[in-house]
Amino acid sequence: MTVDRFAFEQAPDPIFRIDAQGRILDLNEAASACLGYTRDELLGCSIGQLNPSWSGERWDGIWQRLNEQPFGHFIEAFRHRDGNRLQVELNSRVFACGETTEVILYCRARPSQADVLDEPLPDLDELQHLRELLNVAEAISQIGHWRLNVATGQPQWSRQVFAIFQRDPALGAPSFEQHERYVAREDWPRLREAVNRCSAQGTPYKTTVGIRREDGSTGTARVYGSALPKRDVASAELVGFVLDISEQAETEKRLVDAQQRLDIALDASGIGVYWANIVTGEAAADIRYFAMLGYAPGEITPTIDWWRTQLHPDDSGPMQEVLERAIRGDQDDFRGEYRMQHRDGHWVWIEDHGRICERDASGRGQLAIGVHIDISQRKNAERKLNYRANHDRLTHLLNRYSFWCALRRVHAQSLRSQEPYCIAMLDLDFFKAINDTHGHRMGDVVLRGFAKHLRQSMREADWIARWGGEEFIVLMPETSALQAQSSMDRFRSALAQTDFGTSDLAIKITVSIGIAESKPGDATPDMVITVADDCLYQAKRLGRNRVCCNTLETAD
Known about the structure:
alpha+beta; about 40% helix
């Protein structure tokens, strides 16, 4: 309940809110008690039910006068529920509420002289007790009330207002203009304008201002003000409340600062935040989540089904299994790396860190919250590092380590399937002469050209590596010696007809090749490589530019 509503409900005199058609929009407890009706019985009724003379054209005339003079004072008679006439003193005030206008009626019963004489005097002890209760309530709620005489500019403060501003009550309340010392410099003009407008036009106000206390400390307060009905200028008064919200404002400031720091950290790190309702399939995410996928805020409505459709086919099954384990209750946290499709079609690598934060009575997950991190750059770097670790930098063929890994796999498969494989060792003939005659740079050009020609001549299933210097090696799975020799001889013949070097210098090269076929009794692939190496040296001894195999005749 707001302070204005509290003051409305607790006011000792009857108060009515009435619209232009004379309908009762609202009333306080004092109003219903004064007339003997319940509040629900009067809401929506015509004011003419309480004062028959106000029905029809007379009310229209009264409404017109009220609009011409926003403040009014007159004596009328209302009809009590028991049928008796109740003479009341009315003070009216007109308010503009958006495009509509309402009138507030403040009522006070006019007792007969006999009633006045018979009315007992208030109990002073009871009044003092009520005052103390009010002071305690204000201290607990950190709300103080005030009253301002517009003509004299002199306010009255409750005890809690003095406490809020740390002012000694013995000094009394400062004049209205002296309030400037207690209000932040940038907020004082706004507060003064609100007070002046309320005094001149009766417009209630609520504003938040920075405050300065007597002890030098600062804080934040919310100030409420409203004008009392007045009979003349001299009697104009404003009343209101001061609510100390320093702790709340400081907490909100810390929250805003923390949120700003978090936003900066998330922006800098490329982290997007999401939540997903596992039961309904609904989901939501922040702008960073969508930005990493190329979407503008509000462009799509995310759901769990949408997320599934965006996963790369190779990653969908494993990631959904990870999520399902967390939903079942095997674990609260889940993590995965997978690809999601960008708006323009390419794939973005995502690192997903999530947690099941709500579960039903059976332990099954209902709500997941997590973050997405764009790790595409890291994945690209890893791919490049992996490529460099497994390939020769000059020729971009496999290096010895990668070749050995492939050879062990093919050897194991051969033992299971009893299908042979072949290894070919290749060595460029007289390559040292090229380096000595044309320089190492030209030698590198020749090596790159030879590697490209070799790669284009072999099957996709074959594994090709630079073995060292001008030596190369080819692994041919499920290949017999006859097939391998035929393939290598075609390559050797075509190579002899190919020019290498540059446009200014064409260089012809030849190659010596040794081939070995695996045998069922070969315990390790090292034995096959040793035989292929022996065949290579046999080809060199026989005059180079030829193919030698451990089971077939030499081809030249």
